[in-house]
UniProtKB/TrEMBL annotation:
It comes from the Bacteria. Residues 8-76 form the HTH merR-type domain. SUPFAM superfamilies: Putative DNA-binding domain. Gene3D superfamilies: 1.10.1660.10. Coiled coil: none annotated. PANTHER family: REDOX-CYCLING DRUG-SENSING TRANSCRIPTIONAL ACTIVATOR SOXR, REDOX-SENSITIVE TRANSCRIPTIONAL ACTIVATOR SOXR. Keywords: DNA-binding. GO terms for molecular function: DNA binding; DNA-binding transcription factor activity. InterPro entries: DNA-bd_dom_put_sf, MerR-type_HTH_dom, MerR_fam. This is HTH merR-type domain-containing protein.
Amino acid sequence: MTTVTEETLSVSEVARDSGVAPSAVRFYEKHGLITGQRTAGNQRRFHRVEPCLVKIVRVAQRVGLTVAEIRDLMADLPQDRSEMTLDAFYHLRARLEDEARRRLLALTETLDELTSERKLCEIPPK
């Protein structure tokens, strides 16, 4: 359990600050993408960096990463969010950028294959 301070946010505050629905905040917590703690009154409370992490998760989803892949991407982040540093955010961003570029290259190669003069396959005659 955590002590409620001005540094913690409720589910609705994280949702508002990150631009998602409260249900998305609960989903991300359930799947280990963000970290919340419970108060003595059993309310979820989040560190003030969690809305930023939710925004990063949303970008990762747009890149096409699955929940498991996003969790792996974020595995190096400190569990104690008060220990988050700018370097940790920059490292996370760089890893996500690398993955986005890798996927873009793969999609570009696929598009080139689809739009080339080569046949993708031969349909056997009847």
